[in-house]
Specification:
Emycin_Estase, mainly alpha, 2 domains
Length: about 150
């Protein structure tokens, strides 16, 4: 027998805020101890930047993606297509790829691979025949340098 506790959206948002504050505390710690942390790594500043980007991504996932995903799972309507979990996920993937290309490896070539749905350009212009509508925006739609 399963005992499932139904949480409301308000409960979810309260927990979300607590976790976000914990990530913010960790971010501040890394920033305040940047030099000491960099000294422990062979890549120095670059590893600290990757750590901060990872924390940023976790916070963004928590704050931008998790609530729309929670709503989607609980069959709560999403009226803004840009807030659909799949669209948010692809936008965040594009932002992370831009970070890697512009900040971490600005003078390097980068090879990107992934499922066709995520990497193709102009995904939102492709007609989804079965549902008589266009596909949602994907990572390829959001990339500026592709």
């Amino acid at each position: 027998m399963s005992c499932e506790i139904k949480k409301t959206e308000n409960d979810f948002v309260k927990e979300q805020a607590k976790i976000n504050e914990q990530y913010s505390t960790l971010e501040r710690f890394v920033e305040e101890h940047r030099k000491e942390l960099a000294a422990l790594s062979s890549q120095q500043e670059q590893d600290v930047d990757v750590l901060l980007q990872s924390l940023k991504l976790r916070k963004e996932t928590l704050m931008r993606y998790c609530l729309p995903d929670w709503k989607f799972v609980h069959n709560i309507p999403i009226y803004d297509i840009e807030e659909h979990p799949m669209v948010l996920r692809d936008r965040m993937m594009a932002e992370n790829l831009e970070f890697l290309a512009e900040k971490m490896y600005p003078k390097e070539k980068i090879i990107v691979w992934g499922h066709n749905y995520h990497v193709r350009k102009n995904n939102s212009k492709v007609k989804y025949v079965e549902h008589e509508q266009n596909f949602l925006n994907n990572m390829g739609d959001y990339l500026l340098f592709v």
